[in-house]
Amino acid sequence: MRMVDLIEKKRNGLVHSKEEIDFIINGYSNDSIPDYQISAWAMAVFFKDMTQEESAYLTDAMVQSGDTIDLSAIEGIKVDKHSTGGVGDTTTLVLAPLVASVGVPVAKMSGRGLGHTGGTIDKLEAIPGFSVEITNEKFIELVNKNKAAVIGQTQNLTPADKKLYGLRDVTATVNSIPLIASSIMSKKIASGADAIVLDVKTGSGAFMKELSESKVLAEAMVKIGNNLGRQTSAVISDMSQPLGYMIGNALEVKEAVDTLKGKGPKDLTDLCLTLGSHMVVLAKKAKTLTEAKKLLQEAISSGKALQQFKLFVESQNGDSSVIDNPEKLTAAKYKVDILAEKNGYVAEIVADQIGVAAMLLGAGRATKTSEIDLSVGIELRKKIADQVNVGEPIATIYANQEDIEASKQKIISSYKISTTKVDAPKLIYDVIS
Ligand code: URA
Ligand code: CA
């Protein structure tokens, strides 16, 4: 096989065989195929697309390019959740203890990564003492004993995806549905999930800003999962404004605790119940989504879910007293309200701009080596459809720096105030399974 022929084949809109996809990914992994040929091929894929079968082969080839995690020593069906990423998305912190409390094993492997706020691991590290530096053996033992554990990503998972994603980033080929879908699914499959629940975001803070695109991506991922023997469901949820009220690491821990106590923001609570119900059904702990949701609601109202969070924190050396005393979490020096300059109704909160405002305060990493400040962030005081009057706080900044002007201006310009009433956006747009 010659790579030049395969580039031409895709350029002409033809379909690759499994052998051809394996040849491309193996060759790229072992450096026998250079970057420039893979770049040309990725551009051909961008324009000519891939079939479901090709996408599944590509996913599988990337899974095989590195280590895969064997979770078979954990009893039960391991369901992983993945979000395509949004602003202030606190769902993992809520969902892990919530579904674990009804018997679904949660074996979560998480990274730090870049973004508006830290990843799940950074957020958990806002809890004093909490450590994800545990051995694989300890990780498996904890999931079997307590149903939930989180470990940092140490293994060499899907190196071909890492390499290809890096190349796509600088060749304008990130935004291709089969390439995104196989990239995301390869990481989930390599981390050992038996079943997968995808939270595909749509709106201004999402990777896919248009609902139609989000649907196509969700369908592509569900098909890859099913093709590779992993039951997969996708929920398409709103990211036209940040989820919940808090954006920041320690702030989101507090919001997650409130949600587990049954006192969380409505959108975050509802999304967690929806995603959680799909996880419970895929793990065969309930027959229907309705039954699953009831189990989860009971776990919240009885305090079982909160108890599970305490157990999870303690078993990874965290100080669980912050759960009853959130004021013990690291806090920022300054707290500044941003006031409304107009009367009316909130019509829009440009989610990714709020994310940038949080990053400017230090809540997220701009580059791999940036330091993250776990205590800072933003609290939204008003969300879409809320009425506001001049002088009322629309948001609060939690900062450790005196100069918050850039962040403040981003927040002000993110809020669009309308003089007429506005409807709150829908939270769940669609479910694909
Ligand atoms: N996230 C990923 O992991 N891969 C992509 O290709 C796009 C977003
Ligand atoms: Ca939030």
The residue-averaged pLDDT reads: 95
Q: How many beta-strand segments?
A: 13
Derived from helix and strand composition plus strand pairing, the structural class reads alpha/beta
Order of helices and strands: HHHHEHEHHEHHEHEEHHHHHEEHEEEHEE
The geometry reads as globular
Query: Per DSSP, what share of the residues sits in E-state strands of 2 or more residues?
Result: 15-25%
- Outline the biggest β-sheet: 4 strands, mixed
The order of strands across the largest sheet is: 1-4-5-13
| Total helical segments | 17
What does this structure look like?
It is a single chain. The chain has about 425 residues and is an alpha/beta fold. The strands form 4 sheets. A 4-stranded mixed sheet has the order 1-4-5-13, with helices on both faces. It has a 4-stranded antiparallel sheet with strand order 6-9-11-7. It has a 3-stranded antiparallel sheet with strand order 10-8-12. The longest helix is centred in the middle third of the chain and has 17 residues, at about 210-225. Helix content is about 45%, strand content about 15%. The protein is globular and about 65 Å long. The chain starts with a helix and ends with a strand. Bound molecules: uracil and calcium ion. Calcium ion binds near residues 88, 243, 244, 252 and 255. Calcium ion binds near residues 243 and 247.
